[in-house]
Amino acid sequence: MTTTHHSPFDHRMTVYGADDEFVAAAVPFLHEGLGAPGEAPPVAVAAPEKLALLRDAMDGDAKGVVLVPDTEWYSGSAANAVAQSAGYLASHAAPGGRIHLLMEPVWNGRAGRSARETTEWIRYEALANLLFAPMATTALCAYDTRVAGEVIVAAARRAHPGTGSYEDPARLTAELDSLPLPLPPVDAETLAPPTGEAVRSRASARGLSPADAELFTDAVLAAAAALGPVTRTLMWGEAPACVCELRTARRVDDPLAGFVPPAGAELEPDQGLWFTRQVCAYVDVRDDVAGATVRLQYG
Based on the domain organization, do 165 and 30 belong to the same domain? Predict the structure, then answer.
């Protein structure tokens, strides 16, 4: 089933359970992009075997479609996928972001390996409705029930307009963040304040290579600068999953914090969370009446 939503950003969803159903949904969508006046060539992001199916089904028309293996587009976290999409639109889309994108996350790999990872990708789908709202981009997100499963598909419907289950993105992300974070382990170390030297030395002691320790340190300091005064810093874990938790007296509130691509090459001080989200596998934010807890996991 394919659903559509008519707005500057047309965020569609298709669900299938067989290869021929995937082709039946994808080919007309890509032809729609090929026939759209003034648009850039449509893009299909999917597993290599799915791209082969599209190449065969479209015959000569496939030459007009940009075929991208999913592991090249979805190479890291959900925040990395936001950056990839924003960068591609800026570089390749026609004015106003006019382009057709067929996109299938790697649900049988990183995106589907845990409930926590799945939550991050549903967040990505929900926030896309806000992040790309001004763009005249048409996106079709493909969900294979053979690997995504019914629970993931049901959650994804809530992030796609026109499905009958669509939720306001801010409300959906608030629900995703309503579960409390697990308590820090009893052996978590307290750092006061979160200086570069302190974070770097503890990250190295916990097994990160010098390069990784430096990158994680930069991510922690960028988050601390964006969040305002940090009242408590904890570190725990072993490489690659080193964790740093920052406690601040200021709430984060904005569900898009750290997801909005910077306008230029240089980050403003309040955009540090963008860099942090690009570096860290997870950035968990929990607001409460007294401020916010922000937990960063490197790997």
Answer: yes
